[in-house]
Design a protein that fits this description.
Elements (H helix, E strand, L loop, with lengths): L10 E6 L3 H12 L4 E4 L17 H8 L2 H5 L4 E3 L1 E6 L5 E5 L11 E3 L2 H14 L3 E3 L3 E7 L4 E6 L5 E11 L6 H5 L3 E3 L5 E9 L12 E5 L3 E7 L4 E9 H7 L3 H10 L2 H4 L6 E2 L4 E4 L3 E3 L3 E2 L2 E3 L5 E2 L7 H22 L5 H24 L2 H7 L8 H9 L7 H16 L13
Parallel strand pairs: 1-2, 1-10, 2-7, 4-13, 10-20
Antiparallel strand pairs: 3-6, 4-5, 8-9, 9-10, 11-18, 12-15, 12-16, 12-17, 13-14, 14-15, 18-21, 19-20
Helix pairs in contact: 1-4, 1-9, 9-10, 11-13, 12-13
Length: about 425
């Protein structure tokens, strides 16, 4: 406190969390000339899931000035995504280079430990102060600043003050949990069981680097190649279904592999490289993303089912746009602005775009259409652009998507496409 009793503001912005959203926000604000402190509870590099990026991540990398660092790190190039029926009777491949509405032809499969380290180091080199192994304990919103308490790496308690707080705390959802804002998607309480494997038989040749998604009746697998030997494999199923099995996660995972031909044929020579990991109740949203002097970005704004690999792209998009809105609020010296409200609306719109695909993918009548694509009137091109990560859609894409989802609803009652018999 100063002699007059007012708080000394040390920082323009404190960012909670150094993952992709937090690093993106920190870099954006530091490049705008703001004094930024990042408090990250872990020590990087650290294991994290969510390795498959979308082509439109490239636009964000370019704006951050980090593309050269990312592209020169040896990550596997991703040119497409394959969607398989569990019985291996059908599959559909989206080639990002062939979509007439898609501006970026390829993406990357990344090992998140290295990828996240690159982004956090880039935030440092851009001017942000980064303190790892610093756990935020609580925060208090005052009329003209935010006051935080956090525990340092040596176990001591420290304090920080800032004009604004960017919450990029991930699934910990720090500020939203304190305000009881978290809501789960109805009927979508999921559990993910996952690990890294060596020797999984993945697509080769021109399809090297493709992510493989395998749709089962009420669950699905992801298979993401990290390099030519290692693959991230996960099983996502209903939490209620898992609980009724009363079995260990590893048992559930391996039994699902054995009972799913499209997965089993790739696991003949596979061996786990570590223990199985479990994530529970990861699909949720927060009722509000902004409040006076606080903005939530990345997974701290909400997280949806990872079936279309939108997580990192949505996190980094919200990190950048949320940071821009905070910078605008700092210029205006106001705790809550129209730009922050606009950020909230646009983030919900982006998430809603993917949620529409995700919610329908679990419905058989929609899957029947999805697995029998016909590019009449460039319908597949429109789908391709969204699944490549395009969120600002021209009218030419929007009306095609409207027709596509209409056909999906009709297919529930009328055979718009031949019926697929799932064995």
């Amino acid at each position: 406190m100063s002699a007059a009793g007012t708080a000394i503001i040390e920082w323009d912005v404190v960012v909670i969390g150094g993952g992709p959203a937090g690093s993106t926000a920190a870099t954006t604000l530091a490049k705008a000339g703001r004094r930024v402190l990042v408090l990250e509870k872990s020590r990087f590099p650290r294991f994290h899931i969510g390795e498959s990026l979308l082509p439109y991540n490239r636009a964000i990398f370019d704006k951050l000035g980090v593309w050269e660092k990312v592209s020169s790190s040896g990550f596997m190039v991703k040119r497409g995504a394959q969607f398989w029926m569990g019985d291996a009777s059908r599959h559909n491949r989206l080639d990002f280079s062939r979509g007439s509405f898609t501006e970026y032809p390829e993406s990357l499969q990344v090992e998140r430990a290295r990828f996240d380290q690159i982004l956090l180091d880039h935030a440092r080199s851009s001017g942000a102060e980064v303190r790892e192994e610093s756990l935020v304990l609580d925060h208090r919103v005052e009329s003209d600043h935010i006051a935080l308490r956090y525990r340092t790496v040596d176990g001591h308690e420290a304090r920080a003050t800032a004009r604004f707080l960017v919450d990029a705390s991930g699934l910990s959802n720090h500020t939203a949990n304190l305000e009881s804002l978290r809501e789960y998607y109805p009927g979508h309480r999921k559990i993910a069981i996952f690990a890294h494997f060596r020797g999984v038989d993945m697509p080769a040749g021109e399809e090297t680097g493709d992510i493989v998604i395998i749709r089962r009746e009420n669950s699905w697998f992801w298979m993401i190649p990290l390099d030519h030997e290692r693959t991230s494999v996960g099983l996502v199923l209903d939490k209620a279904d898992f609980q009724t099995m009363k079995r260990e996660p590893a048992e559930v995972f391996h039994e699902a592999v054995e009972n799913t031909p499209a997965a089993r044929m790739r696991f003949d020579h596979a061996e786990a490289l570590g223990p199985m990991h479990v994530a529970v109740d990861f699909s949720y949203h927060n009722r509000s993303l902004v409040s006076p002097r606080v903005v939530r970005v990345g997974d701290a704004s909400g997280f949806i089912d990872p079936i279309f690999s939108s997580g990192v792209m949505l996190a980094m998009t919200s990190g950048m746009e949320g940071a821009k809105a905070v910078d605008d609020a700092l210029r205006q010296s106001r705790p809550l602005t129209a730009a922050l409200r606009r950020y909230e609306r646009e983030t919900w719109r982006n998430v809603g775009l993917y949620w529409r695909f995700i919610g329908n993918f679990y419905k058989l009548h929609f899957a029947q259409l999805f697995f029998q694509p016909v590019n009449k009137h460039r319908m597949v091109c429109a789908i391709n652009s969204v699944l490549a990560g395009r969120t600002r859609l021209p009218l030419a894409v929007r009306w095609r998507l409207a027709v596509f989802f209409l056909l999906g609803r009709l297919n529930r009652h009328l055979p718009v496409v031949p019926r697929i018999v799932v064995r």
